Here is the input.
Amino acid sequence: MTLALHVTDEALTGFLSVYNPTVLALRARLGFWPMPTFEFREWLTGLILGILLLAALSPFAFRNVRWIRPIFYFCAVVAGVLNALGHTMATIFGHTVSIVRFPRPAPGFYSSPLLLIVSVYALAQLRRTRHRPTSP
Here is the structure.
């Protein structure tokens, strides 16, 4: 739910107008950058499908099924903690890379504190339940 709120925040505050130029600037500077650029529709559709997939997988997480734990660790760290800190740092600095500046706060910033809190909580729960047996 929090990730869906964050995607909504990004969509409403113009995230792609900062993200795409950042990717292009990094490609120009480094010669290669592994992140793609997006049109709004494909970006939003992909995120909606990803969120629905995570929602469909959540019963396995609630039952503490072993194979799902690395997926949720990855999501908590990358989609949660690093994402929230990235929006926060961009807000503090007012840019992503030197040539991509924007008025503060950064797009997606408003929901970042909640995303960070929920992600840290998820990591704590994953750690707390690491030795608990899987439910049937």
Summary: DSSP finds five helices and no strands in the chain. The chain has a mean pLDDT of 93. The CA atoms of residues 13 and 89 lie 16 Å apart. The radius of gyration is 17 Å.
